């Protein structure tokens, strides 16, 4: 029988060993359901025991299923396979599995298991775990989607990509049940589709590639070969997609490009520029990585609760059927946030006898995301954050998913729009622009926040993401709810604008004067004088005036 002192010594040693676990390893979240056990065996048969990677397996089976997964996988690998039954420290070269009746949560570097209680835990366990994995491990998180039915995993992998991680999917042709792989591929955010036995080698190659290529941020210090390759890459993006990323944060852009280089295990930046020339589909993949059109219903539930209980009632206050509630969702991605706001407005309108009409403008520069939003169809997993009551009231069951009801869809106008360049909407009560400004440089952020102030009515609201603020324009806004990043516009006096010291001299030739009036007018309209007039407006007219002259297009 051991002495108590020895027991204490063992506990101290165990604690010291946990503290010595490195924190820079990758964590791979693997999701599967029907047919997944066979795919998992093939997967771990190819994983080296010293990969310096941790693996977490979420097998979405019936809660009544008696899972022997831990013992089955242990026969295929030398790595320890841990059945998680309590809070456990994640370590590399370990595999973690759970019971089908439970779901995983993460806390710092620990993983915990809890019984399925909420509706979303039961119907989307893979998605819920992948989202928490992405939030805790960021670029070190990887998602793998294997054989299974339904769309489990397709929502969670979006968060993985948003946080800078990588995603791999089993080839649907090889999968015993191909719905999960096909739904994942349909997001257009998957890095590679491979046979299951080939995925481990790609993950290891990705791990080895991380940090091997570093693009220097400072232009002055950047080697000429890198500078030339970057110019080539951005030129290809602009020519093939029409998108100009000059206003985006340079460090963010460079990290996204580095990630694409790592995914393809290329040696350097010039090699990636060549790869981009030779593979046209890579341009689309890079664009998706740079845009990251990711959202979900009622994202940040506490913030949406503040909108529901405080902001939305104030927007409706004093309005009747002859009035209109006007909202702009800037950077709406695939539409979940716009529909969430429409649902809140519909619920508010039900409590008002003479309720105003609701018009929501939802815009994005990603045309494929806008197409999804217009359709208003979402998988069971996409709708995991919608309560059962709201699903019943505002959605109809459509095959394997849900479709937003017509009365909600008709509140929203979806449009392709770039708020950096295109004229804004006007007379708005609320603008939401969440997790978009963080990708823009400070100059673009300031311009956008000024544009939003111009578009909003006095004392109305701007709703930003959890890492965004209006600190650079504190004279335009007050913090209405700083905890949830809700701001209110200030009423301001007109600003003074510089006026040119000298007036340009216009000279007319003899031929100009001899022309008939209508010919001279046509020439001015289409010629250099018209262009000069436009340039003068752009250079000297106040920013708000230049916006105002185009606002009529979007009202």
* Shape type: globular
Q: Summarize the amount of helix as a percent range.
A: 40-55%
CATH class of the largest domain: Alpha Beta
Low-confidence stretches: 14-18, 496-510, 524-530, 532-555
CATH architecture of the largest domain: 3-Layer(aba) Sandwich
Number of domains: 4
Computed CA radius of gyration, to the nearest angstrom: 28 Å
Report the end-to-end length measured between terminal Cα atoms: 82 Å
Short description:
By secondary structure, this protein is of the alpha/beta class.
What order do the helices and strands come in, and which of them pair?
Elements: H1 4-19, E1 26-32, H2 36-45, E2 53-59, H3 69-74, E3 81-83, E4 88-89, E5 95-97, E6 102-107, E7 110-115, H4 119-123, H5 125-137, E8 141-145, H6 156-162, E9 166-170, H7 179-185, E10 192-194, H8 199-209, H9 224-241, H10 250-263, H11 269-278, H12 280-291, H13 301-316, E11 324-330, H14 336-350, E12 357-364, H15 367-375, E13 377-379, H16 388-394, E14 395-398, E15 401-404, H17 406-409, E16 412-416, E17 428-433, H18 442-455, E18 456-464, E19 477-481, E20 486-489, H19 510-514, H20 517-526, H21 528-540, H22 543-551
Parallel strand pairs: 1-2, 1-8, 2-5, 3-5, 8-9, 9-10, 11-12, 11-17, 12-16, 17-18
Antiparallel strand pairs: 4-7, 6-7, 13-15, 14-15, 18-20, 19-20
Helix pairs in contact: 5-6, 9-11, 9-12, 11-12, 13-14, 20-21
């Amino acid at each position: 029988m051991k002495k108590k002192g020895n027991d204490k010594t063992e506990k101290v040693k165990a604690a010291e060993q946990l503290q010595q676990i490195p924190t820079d390893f990758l964590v791979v979240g693997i999701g599967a359901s029907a047919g997944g056990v066979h795919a998992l065996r093939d997967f771990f048969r190819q994983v080296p025991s010293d990969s310096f990677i941790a693996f977490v397996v979420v097998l979405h089976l019936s809660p009544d299923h008696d899972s022997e997964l831990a013992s089955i996988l242990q026969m295929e690998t030398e790595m320890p396979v841990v059945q998680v039954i309590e809070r456990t420290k994640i370590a590399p070269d370990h595999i973690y599995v759970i019971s089908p009746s439970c779901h995983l949560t993460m806390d710092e570097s620990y993983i915990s298991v809890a019984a399925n209680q909420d509706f979303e835990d039961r119907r989307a366990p893979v998605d819920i775990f992948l989202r928490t994995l992405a939030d805790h491990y960021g670029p070190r998180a990887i998602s793998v989607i294997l054989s299974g039915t339904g769309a489990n995993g397709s929502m969670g992998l979006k968060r993985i990509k948003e946080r800078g991680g990588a995603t791999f999917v089993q080839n649907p042709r090889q999968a015993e049940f191909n719905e999960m792989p096909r739904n994942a591929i349909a997001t257009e955010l998957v890095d590679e589709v491979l046979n299951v036995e080939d995925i481990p080698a790609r993950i290891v190659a990705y791990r080895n590639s991380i940090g091997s290529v570093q693009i220097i941020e400072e232009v002055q210090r950047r080697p000429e070969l890198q500078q030339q390759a970057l110019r080539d890459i951005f030129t290809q993006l602009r020519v093939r997609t029409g998108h100009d990323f000059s206003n985006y944060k340079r460090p963010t852009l460079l990290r996204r490009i580095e990630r694409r280089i790592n995914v393809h295990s290329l040696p350097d930046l010039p090699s990636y520029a060549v790869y981009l020339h030779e593979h046209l589909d890579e341009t689309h993949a890079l664009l998706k990585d740079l845009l990251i059109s990711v959202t979900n219903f009622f994202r940040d539930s506490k913030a949406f609760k503040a909108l529901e209980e405080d902001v939305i009632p104030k927007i409706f206050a004093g309005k009747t059927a002859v009035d209109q509630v006007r909202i702009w969702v800037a950077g709406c991605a695939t539409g979940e946030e716009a529909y969430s706001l429409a649902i809140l407005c519909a619920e508010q309108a039900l409590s008002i006898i003479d309720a105003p009409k609701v018009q929501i403008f939802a815009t994005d520069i990603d045309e494929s995301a806008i197409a999804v939003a217009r359709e208003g169809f979402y998988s069971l997993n996409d709708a995991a954050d919608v309560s059962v009551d709201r699903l019943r009231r505002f959605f109809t069951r459509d095959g394997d998913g849900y479709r937003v009801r017509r009365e909600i869809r008709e509140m929203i106008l979806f449009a392709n729009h770039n708020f950096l360049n295109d004229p804004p909407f006007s007379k708005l009560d609320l603008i939401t622009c969440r997790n978009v400004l963080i990708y823009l440089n400070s100059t673009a952020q300031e311009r956008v926040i000024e544009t939003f102030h111009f578009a909003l009515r006095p004392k109305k609201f701007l709703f930003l993401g959890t890492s965004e603020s209006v600190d650079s324009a504190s004279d335009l806004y007050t913090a209405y709810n700083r905890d949830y990043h809700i701001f209110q516009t200030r009423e301001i006096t007109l600003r003074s604008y510089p006026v040119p010291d000298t007036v340009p001299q216009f000279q007319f030739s003899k031929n100009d004067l001899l022309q008939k009036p209508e010919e001279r007018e046509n020439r001015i309209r289409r010629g250099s004088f018209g262009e000069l007039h436009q340039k003068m407006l752009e250079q000297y007219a106040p920013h708000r005036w230049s916006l105002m002259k185009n606002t009529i297009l979007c009202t």
